[in-house]
Every structure is written in C-alpha cells, then in structure tokens.
Amino acid sequence: MKRPQDVKKTGKYLFYSLPEDVIVVNLLIEETRFYKGPYADYAKDLLEIENVRKTNQISYSILKAEARNIRVPDKNNYYYYKGRCNKVTEKIITDRQNILYGISVNSPQMNCFPAFSYLKNSNYPVIPFADACNDGTHKEVTDTTYKTSYIDSAFVKVPVLKTTLEAKTTADKAEDAANHLMRIRKRTFKFISGAYKEVPQPQTTESILQELAREEAEYLSLFTGKEYSNQYIVSLQYTPGADTTHILAWFSEKAGLSAVQKPGYFPLVLELNYEGHLDTLKKYQNFPDKKRINGIVYRIPARIRVSLKMNNALILQKDMLISQKGILSVYPASVVKKIKNGVVLHPVSE
C-alpha cells in the first residue's frame, strides 16, 4: 500500500479512496399567505367583527427537519495497492465512486444521493375573492326634479322622477355582501329546522348544506380575508471539518431562508459533538508513518451527535457516523488473505 505521492507508475496498482461524509439537512418549510378581505374596513360596522387583519401578510415556518449523511471520496486520502499475489487484490471491493467498500464482499449497487425539486407547487389563486362582485357593480339612483307648468291660469311645479345607473362604491358592495351573508345564514337555519314546506330528497341534504357552508365562508372571507399555504423542501449541505459549529443558513418568519445574514434573521446553527467512543482506540493506535504499508488502509468513523438549533432552540438532534472525524487503521495483508465470509469496511450512503 502506497500513498499517491510515493507512486511513480500507477498502471500496476489498485487505486481507491477513503470516504468523507457530507451532512445533508432537509427542511420542510411552509409558506403562508394572507390576503385581506376587500371589505375588511367595514367588518365591525356591518357584522360586528373586531380584530380583523387589514394588510396582506406572508409568513414562513419550519414544519420538519431531517438529517442524513452521504459519502464522497476524501481528496486527502487516496491510496494505491499492489499485492504480491492477485488473490489479495481481487478481494478489495470499491463502490462506483472508487471508495473502499469492503473485503471479499459483493460490490454495492449504487450510492444514494438526495435529489430535490426547487420548483414550488403553488396553490395560490389568481383571484382570491371570486365572488366579490356577485351582486352587481351598479345601482339605480332616482333623482327628483321639478318642472314648472302653467295650468288653469296658474304656475304649478310638477315632480319628474329620473332614474340613472351609478357605479357602486366599496361601501355599497360591502353592504350587499353583508346582506347576502345574512340571507345565507337564514336559509341554512330554515333548512336545518325544517321550516321549508318542500323537503329535498334525503341523499341531497348533505351536499346542500356543504354548498351553503361554502358560500357562507366565501362571503365571510370578503371581510375577514383568506389564507393559503404552500409547502416545499430545502436541502442544505455541510462537510464536517475542524469546526464544531457551522451556520447553515439564516431564517426569518417574515421572509424565509437566506444565505447571508440580514436584520431580523435567526441563524440555523449545526453543532457537532464528539461522543468519545474512539478515545481508547486512539490511545493504542499505531498507524505506520511509512511510504509502504503492508496492508489495506481503512477508516473507523466517529460517532458524532449532530444538533440543529435556531435562535438557541433545538429543532433536530441525531447521532451520525462521520468518517473524517474518525481514525485511520490498517488491515494487515496476512489477515486479508484469510478473510472468506467478507468484511464491509465503509457501507455506501444510507
């Protein structure tokens, strides 16, 4: 076994690399949009509804966080192996990335890497208040004028009625919507109480009530507003190094994720805590510092507790095996020759 810098002719050697783990954090983010009702200013006067939101709003929240690790070749740990016999060389198995997989085992099928679509499936309506003008946009206005006529040797003022159409004001439309809402509620009450003489067929009762409830909610939203939500996944990656903390991104409930720090944003901090289970092995580790190593170099990963925090609040915690945080060891060539059942040294990505 030789390191790359110690090999002049690579054609006769088996080449492989050791793994390096990349932490992938997947965030399920919900975007909520609130559209104020077009008649929100009249909700208290016409319907006695208080504390109505009167501005459009957008908010974001993290619904779920998951973490996993994928393995890639470690650019700082490549090795060339040349055995004295082909039997040892044939036992060394690598994956599709040429990462050392195991000894005397079947080749792994594939390396699984996460794939995400960053296209948001929007369910926001083009017209959030479709029934806002259901009662018409014009109203009749009757104006009385007087015409002077000469009747029986006397001047008499005769009233003349003139009817014109005028566009409804927002206040007029709000009053129409409130009146229609009251009519819907009266119809629903009469239908439930059995006040109508004509009774519909039993199988249509549920659908009638559902349609009345839908129409009532639609007209009520003209005053109270509507809220729509949309969910999407964002994938953040980090390759652990010497640092124990790393800021993955910045998050704001009003604006969502950001790659840079901005006012009002909280950091999404990834913390890595070593559990110390390799301390005993490190104490007795005797990795040879030679140009030629008589065996196969592999890696014993370290168990790391990965925590994701936002504004010091813990939202995710998971134990992971991180290869580059572990220690190097050697499988002696004499032991490799005797392996029959197979040994998996570095499993493919989970």
Biggest pleated-sheet summary: 5 strands, antiparallel
Provide the helix percentage: 10-25%
First-last Cα distance: 28 Å
Strand order of the largest sheet: 9-8-10-11-12
- In N-to-C order, the SSE pattern is EHEHEEEEHHEEEEHEEHE
Give the mean pLDDT. 83
The unreliable regions are: none
The rough form would be described as elongated
Number of strands: 13
Counting H and I runs of at least 4 residues, what is the number of helices? 6
Number of domains: 2
What does this structure look like?
With 350 residues, this protein is α+β, with helices and mostly antiparallel strands. The protein has helices spanning 43-47, 86-91, 170-193, 205-224, 279-283, 333-338, and strands spanning 14-35, 57-81, 92-94, 100-103, 138-151, 154-167, 226-238, 245-252, 256-258, 266-274, 295-310, 313-332, 343-344. It has a 5-stranded antiparallel sheet with strand order 9-8-10-11-12. It has a 3-stranded antiparallel sheet with strand order 2-1-7. The protein is elongated and about 140 Å long. The two termini are 28 Å apart.
Any chance you could write out the topology, listing elements then pairs?
Elements: E1 14-35, H1 43-47, E2 57-81, H2 86-91, E3 92-94, E4 100-103, E5 138-151, E6 154-167, H3 170-193, H4 205-224, E7 226-238, E8 245-252, E9 256-258, E10 266-274, H5 279-283, E11 295-310, E12 313-332, H6 333-338, E13 343-344
Antiparallel strand pairs: 1-2, 1-7, 3-4, 4-13, 5-6, 8-9, 8-10, 10-11, 11-12
